[in-house]
Amino acid sequence: MIISSLLKPRCIVFKDYNSQRQFKGFATIYLVGFTQTFIATLNYTMMIIWLGSSNEGLCPALSIGRAVYYAWFLLISYDVAELIFKPILSFLSDKFGWKMSLILSIISQIISLTAFIEDKFQNFLISRIFQGIASSISPTLMAVASNLTDDGERYVGVYMSFRGLGYLTAPLLIAVMDEPSKQFIILITFSLALLQITPLIINVHLKFGKADKLNLNTFFQKDICLLFLLTVLASVLIGVRFTLIPLVMIRRGFTTQIVGMILTLGFLICFIGQSSSGILLENRYLIPLSSSGFILSTVGSVYVPFARSLLDLLIVALTITLGSGLTLLSTNTLLTQKARKTNITSTLGLNGLAQNMGELVGLTTIASLSEIDINMAIVSIMAVALTGFTVSLLIRRGSENN
After folding, report:
1. Pair 90, 102 in one domain
2. Total domains present in the chain
3. Residues 6 or more apart from 319 whose CB is under 8 A from it?
4. Residues 376, 303 share a domain
5. Model confidence over 288-316: pLDDT tens digits?
6. CATH code at 33?
7. Is residue 305 classed exposed, middle or buried when 0-12, 13-18 and 19+ CB atoms within 10 A define those classes?
8. Top-confidence residue, 30 or 247
9. pLDDT tens-digit readout, 265-290
10. Staple 330 to which of 49, 268, 290, 347, CB 3.0 to 4.6 Å?
11. What is the pTM of this model?
């Protein structure tokens, strides 16, 4: 009986997923999500390599402090561009249709790759900004994926996993290659950018079209605002995994290769968890999943001061990475469902803005606190995680009362 009950929903899920024309729609949207992050990560990784190269780098004599500053500046410029343009492209999608926003995204990516050709820091900065504009199409693509079928919001997690796969595979490609040339990098990124027109070529059939009238009251509903807040708090923890975890582990004597390997494993587990949870779990379980995500992040934060061995490092990376990832899956899926027949893309765009705000806080504030007092940084992270847990309980209680 138990086994059959577990297998039954899976059969329904995959039957819907592979139905007729919708498989092409899902495949092309996932392809664009993957290529967006792959190109952005590949270019950023190569920028850092070329900036500090002892032979051909722009700044071969940079001290480690200045080199980190340049890398941070390039990283932040991408996030700031997303922060500004996610709501803009999302609003345009609701008003004029998702295809126009996708065309604007592709144009921005081509401009970014063109600026990348010139070996100047200013060009790198321009390239990163336009990469951020191009990636701002993400909320629109989530809305498109959710509209391909009646229960399409459950595939938002799969889309997020494909984006994460782009973040993961780009540095791995560079790691296995022997100093790839700039010509090769530009060729492969231009080719991938052109693949992003596939959703425009195939006939993608949506269950719901663009909103005829934007309902601004949607943004100010209590449950919507609380979900936005959960996104901010979870995204702060994303910044933590890029700042505090590597810093603490390197201070403990681990090599950068080991730290990178463990963080990569954490990302991989997170992608699997997001994809499988989004497909297999019903919507009523998503807020408990979010609560569990914050508890995992709290456990990881508490364990940071005691991390000494490789196993300790793995526990910290997995708990914080998986915890924040599951919470973001919950907020994106629930917001997609709540705003389905109104201004769905604009709602997801504001949620994307909230995510970038949280990441910026995590990347700057936590990094600054880590340099001043590592214990202060850990306490701050625990406060963020516990606040997220409390907010998720409020959302759950409100939904039960309704």
Report:
1. yes
2. 2
3. 296, 297, 299, 300, 303
4. yes
5. 888 998 998 888 888 877 777 878 878 88
6. 1.20.1250.20
7. exposed
8. 30
9. 777 888 888 888 877 777 788 888 88
10. 290
11. 0.78
